[in-house]
């Protein structure tokens, strides 16, 4: 009920389209614990969807693809010159609306080479013509913002590329 009339989509962190091998797996992606409020038109149904499709295409190129996705609440500079973390809440349960979302992806090639891609997208209407590659950021940026370490058992020197650039 929190989402009803809010203008936000129930955005999946683990996309239903990535779990089509078994219906029970698809069904599990519809738990609210796998969702966060996302701007619908111009983000969830468009730019974010293109990023999800990009990651799905990686599974056709690489033997294994590992993906971490989640919400971020990033600070913005206010008119007083100070930075604040400010976000909207929706519904009677005050569901927090993330300011941004991230994806960190590691792809394993047949020869064992590892490639990492990392993205941050603002949770807002985004121009359709903007390529997903323009949302690439260093993985350390996401780790700092999220307070998490991604793929920390893989030393960065073991990666062949990060965001398409040789390590």
Number of helical runs? 4
Order of strands, widest sheet: 3-8-9-10-11
Into which percentage range does the β-strand content fall? 25-35%
Shape: globular
Report the end-to-end length measured between terminal Cα atoms.
47 Å
Largest sheet: 5 strands, mixed
Structure description:
With 167 residues, this protein is an alpha+beta fold. The protein has 4 helices and 11 strands; from the N terminus they run βαβααβββββββαββ. It has a 5-stranded mixed sheet with strand order 3-8-9-10-11, with helices on both faces. It starts with 7 loop residues before the first strand and ends with a strand.
Briefly characterize the structure.
By secondary structure, the protein is an alpha+beta fold.
Q: What's the structural blueprint in terms of helices and strands?
A:
Layout: E1 8-12, H1 23-28, E2 35-39, H2 40-44, H3 47-61, E3 64-72, E4 76-77, E5 83-84, E6 89-90, E7 95-96, E8 100-108, E9 114-122, H4 139-146, E10 159-162, E11 165-166
Parallel strand pairs: 9-10
Antiparallel strand pairs: 1-2, 3-8, 4-5, 6-7, 8-9, 10-11
Offer a few descriptive terms.
single chain; alpha+beta; Extracellular Endonuclease, Chain A; 5-stranded mixed sheet; 20% helix
